[in-house]
Amino acid sequence: MLGRSGYRALPLGDFDRFQQSSFGFLGSQKGCLSPEPGADVPQSWPSCLCHGLISFLGFLLLLITFPVSGWFALKIVPTYERMIVFRLGRIRTPQGPGMVLLLPFIDSFQRVDLRTRAFSVPPCKLASKDGAVLSVGADVQFRIWDPVLSVMTVKDLNTATRMTAQNAMTKALLKRPLREIQMERLKISDQLLLEINDVTRAWGLEVDRVELAVEAVLQPPQDSPAGPSLDSTLQQLALHFLGGGMSSVAGGALPPGPDTLEMVSEVEPPAPHVGAGPTPKQPVAEGLLAALQPFLSEALVNQVGACYQFNVTLPGGTQSTYFLDLATGQGRVGHGVPDGIPDVVVEMAEADLRALLCRELRPLGAYMSGRLKVKGDLAVAMKLEAVLRALK
């Protein structure tokens, strides 16, 4: 029976002495007992005799064909690895580090890496307790503390650990509202660490770190009040501090990072901005031209450097086409298609365009929620944030 001292991970030196004291070498008098975690019944004396005879013949064959057989029988195990050897199907004591001798035809082996490894749980859409829809992922670091258990108890250790982490994350977030997930992310990560370890320790694996990553909030809570509240204030503060990160988009890449939050407030009144904008009696598409034309400049062209085509769907179902050329000169905006090939084609509804101009909707939030469709480079499309900032 495999002995374990609680759930404490042992250092490499203590681990070797622990394994040597727990398991005997098969082929000796104590080797008739199987050391695997399944606690096999002792071998009968005829089985032990056959085992010893075949092992002796394999060792004799190794000596006769030496040194040619040495190239195949001698294996080098580095310090950060252990070698699990199966002799005639029965597991032996983990070998290594150093040089390990394998008997030809009767020994098979598997290497186990003891170093810390990491994987990412891909972002998935989850519904919180208050009805909010968010995209959440996680980063997990783990290491193997018992190579025998890692080989004997589970076939695909990486896949099993990944699915365990994803299931634990899903169950934990379904029980919490959106505000608690955002404010107590570190506490939730520590709880996930304990829950995952409760499962994986039986596999000889220990998780060292779990970091929860909230990618975006795709839909606000359904039971939130219609008027301003504390949650709305916190969301606006988050948008204020995170809005500066979009300036890096002008370099041609999306701002990475697992801590990025994208929140869309559908009930916030439009933020006041300087300049002409779409009026209630004026069509939104025409208001786009009137609002953008006075703010076009060479500085904005140098910052964006792209040409956009907007396909705006009107309430009647018809579609109007406009362009915004910020590739040359001081920029141009007008009705119809641009002179050249646009870098990005943006498709959206008239109401969403109005929300975008009034800064009630962010480009990234509109894209994540499916209200803005992009044909072309997404990083170039996100540079529209610089155009919206010019409307302030």
TrEMBL record:
Belongs to the band 7/mec-2 family. InterPro entries: Band-7_stomatin-like (IPR043202), Band_7 (IPR001107), Band_7/SPFH_dom_sf (IPR036013), SCP2_sterol-bd_dom (IPR003033), SCP2_sterol-bd_dom_sf (IPR036527), Stomatin_HflK_fam (IPR001972). This is Stomatin-like protein 1 isoform X2. Keywords: Membrane, Transmembrane, Transmembrane helix. The keyword Protein biosynthesis does not apply. The chain crosses the membrane at residues 53-74. SUPFAM superfamilies: Band 7/SPFH domain, SCP-like. Residues 72-237 form the Band domain.
